[in-house]
C-alpha cells in the first residue's frame, strides 16, 4: 500500500459515530493513521445511515466516487458499512464492482479479520446479527479525550411502522452491567469527565439473565462512579421510562438535566398508526414527572410530520404538544417511506409533500419562538460549562451546559483546557446558542454534591 492512511465518512446517529470509532481503532492497531482527505487514503469506509431519505441511492453515489480513486490506486480498499450496508448485503458487491467488502453494524468488531481476507483477494459480505458480539473497548479510537460514548444495548425490539432500525440493527442485545461499568471506569481512569450511554431504546436495558436489574439500577450504579462529572443517555423510549428511572434522574446531580424523549406526534391516532404503544396523555404525565424530579430539566424530541393518515386536526395536536412541553430542541422531519417498513402499506391517505412541507415550517416557527424564550430565561444565570472547543470570534471558546445548550464565552484572556469545567455567566441568548463570560478565574472550586438526599417517587 502506498500510504498508510484511512478515511471514514460517517452518516447518522451516535451509534454510527461509535461504530466509526471502533473501526478507526482497529485500523490504527494495524498502523494506519487517519486522514481527512479521501484521495490520499489506502482504506476508505462509508459508514452509512438508512434513516436518510433515499439512503441507498446516496450511498451508491458516494461509493461511485470512491471507486474512481482505484483507477489511480488499484491497492485502495473500499468498505461499505452501517445500516444501508446491512440492508444491501452481497447485492452491494454485485452493484459496485470495485467494492471490497460490506460490513453490517453488528459485525464492525470483525473489521481486522475482514481486511485480512480482503488482502488475500477475497470480497467479503459480513452482515447479520451474531449472538455474541465482542465489545473490544481497547480498540476504540475515541474522538475526544474527555467525552466517551458507551453502548448499553444494541438493536431494537420495537416495531415502529416508519423505522428501519429493527431490520438493520437487529433485535436487542444488552451488555452485562459489569462490562459496562468496566468500560466507564476505564474511561474515567483515562481522565474522561462525560459519559454518554447509548442505545436505540437505552432505557429498555436489562441485565442479561436478570430482568430485575434494569436501567434505573444501571443509572444509579454508573452515576456513583468516582470521577464521573457528567452522565448522559440517549435515546429513551417514553413507554419504557419507569418511576424508578425518573427518581434516579432527580437523585444524582451528575446525571445531566437533559432527556431526549422522542414523541413523534401529538395525535393519538397517528401514534397508533406509528405503532408507538403510548398515548399523548401518558407522555405528558412522564414529562411532568421528570420536571418535578429535576429543576431546570431540558427536553428534546423527534417529530415526524405528514405521516400517512395525519389530518390537519392531528397536526394541530402536534403543535399543541410542542407548545405545552416547550422543548429545548426538536428534530422534526417530513415523513418519507423507508423500503421494507410497514408504514408505506398503511391503507390511509398520505398528506402531499406540499402539505407536509408547510406543516414542517409551522413546527419550526413555533419551536424557534419557544427555543429563544427558553434560552432568554437563562440570561443572568451562572452555569458550569464543559469546554469543547474554540468559538467563532477570535479568542472565544465554546462548551455545553449540563442541559446541553451551546455556550460561546469570553475566557477573559485565560483560555480553559478542552474538557475542563468552568463557570460562566450567561449574558445573551439567541435561538441556537448562548453567550457568556467566564467567572471562575482564580476562584477555588468548591466540591459539588453528587447525590441528592431527596428521592422523588
Ligand atoms: S423504538 Fe421505534 S423508532 Fe426507535 S429504533 Fe426502535 S423501531 Fe425505531
Helices, by number, come to: 13
What is the β-strand count? 21
Please identify which CATH superfamily of the largest domain we are dealing with. Answer: Methylthiotransferase, N-terminal domain
Instruction: Give the uncertain stretches in residue-range form.
Output: 452-457
Quaternary state of the chains: single chain
* N-to-C span: 61 Å
The backbone outline, from C-alpha atoms, is globular
- Which topology of the largest domain does CATH recognise? Rossmann fold
What is the CA-atom radius of gyration, in angstroms?
23 Å
Helix-residue proportion:
25-40%
Structural class: alpha/beta
Strand content: 15-25%
Number of domains: 4
- What's the level 1 CATH class of the largest domain? Alpha Beta
For the biggest sheet, the summary is: 6 strands, parallel
Bound compounds, please?
Answer: iron/sulfur cluster
CATH architecture term of the largest domain: 3-Layer(aba) Sandwich
Overall mean pLDDT stands at: 92
Q: Major sheet: order of its strands? A: 2-1-3-4-5-6
Amino acid at each position: 500500500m502506498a500510504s498508510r492512511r484511512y478515511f471514514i465518512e460517517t452518516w447518522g446517529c451516535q451509534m454510527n459515530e461509535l461504530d466509526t470509532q471502533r473501526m478507526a481503532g482497529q485500523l490504527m492497531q494495524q498502523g494506519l493513521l487517519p486522514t481527512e482527505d479521501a484521495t490520499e487514503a489506502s482504506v476508505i469506509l462509508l459508514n452509512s445511515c438508512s434513516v436518510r431519505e433515499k439512503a441507498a441511492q446516496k450511498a451508491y453515489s458516494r461509493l461511485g466516487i470512491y471507486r474512481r480513486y482505484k483507477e489511480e490506486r488499484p491497492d485502495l480498499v473500499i468498505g461499505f458499512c452501517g445500516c444501508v450496508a446491512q440492508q444491501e448485503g452481497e447485492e452491494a458487491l454485485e452493484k459496485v464492482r470495485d467494492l471490497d467488502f460490506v460490513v453490517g453494524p453488528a459485525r464492525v468488531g470483525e473489521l481486522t479479520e475482514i481486511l485480512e481476507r480482503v488482502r488475500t483477494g477475497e470480497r467479503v459480505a459480513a452482515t447479520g446479527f451474531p449472538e455474541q458480539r465482542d465489545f473490544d473497548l481497547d480498540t476504540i479510537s475515541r474522538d475526544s479525550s474527555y467525552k466517551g460514548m458507551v453502548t448499553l444495548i444494541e438493536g431494537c425490539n420495537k416495531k415502529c411502522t416508519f423505522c428501519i432500525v429493527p431490520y438493520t440493527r437487529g433485535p436487542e442485545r444488552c451488555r452485562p452491567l459489569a462490562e459496562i461499568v468496566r468500560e466507564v471506569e476505564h474511561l474515567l481512569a483515562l481522565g474522561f469527565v462525560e459519559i454518554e450511554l447509548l442505545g436505540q431504546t437505552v432505557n429498555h436495558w436489562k441485565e442479561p439473565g436478570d430482568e430485575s436489574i434494569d436501567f434505573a439500577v444501571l443509572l444509579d450504579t454508573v452515576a456513583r462512579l468516582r470521577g464521573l462529572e457528567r452522565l448522559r443517555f440517549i435515546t429513551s423510549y417514553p413507554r419504557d421510562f419507569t418511576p424508578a428511572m425518573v427518581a434516579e434522574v432527580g437523585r444524582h446531580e451528575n446525571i445531566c438535566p437533559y432527556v431526549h424523549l422522542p414523541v413523534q406526534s401529538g395525535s393519538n391516532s397517528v401514534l397508533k398508526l406509528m405503532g408507538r404503544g403510548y398515548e399523548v396523555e401518558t407522555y405528558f404525565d412522564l414529562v411532568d414527572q421528570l420536571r418535578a424530579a429535576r429543576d431546570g430539566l431540558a427536553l428534546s424530541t423527534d417529530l415526524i410530520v405528514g405521516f400517512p393518515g395525519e389530518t390537519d386536526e392531528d397536526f394541530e395536536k402536534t403543535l399543541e404538544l410542542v407548545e405545552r412541553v416547550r422543548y429545548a430542541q426538536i428534530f422534526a422531519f417530513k415523513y418519507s417511506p423507508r423500503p421494507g417498513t410497514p408504514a408505506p402499506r398503511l391503507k390511509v391517505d398520505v398528506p402531499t409533500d406540499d402539505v407536509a412541507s408547510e406543516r414542517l415550517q409551522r413546527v419550526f416557527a413555533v419551536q424557534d419562538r419557544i427555543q429563544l424564550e427558553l434560552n432568554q430565561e437563562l440570561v443572568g444565570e451562572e452555569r458550569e460549562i464543559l469546554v469543547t472547543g474554540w468559538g467563532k470570534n477570535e479568542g472565544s471558546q465554546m462548551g455545553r451546559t449540563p442541559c446541553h445548550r451551546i455556550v460561546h464565552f469570553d475566557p477573559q484572556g485565560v483560555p480553559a483546557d478542552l474538557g475542563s469545567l468552568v463557570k460562566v455567566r450567561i449574558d445573551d441568548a439567541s435561538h441556537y446558542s448562548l453567550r457568556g463570560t467566564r467567572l471562575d478565574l482564580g476562584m477555588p472550586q468548591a466540591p459539588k454534591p453528587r447525590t441528592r438526599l431527596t428521592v422523588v417517587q
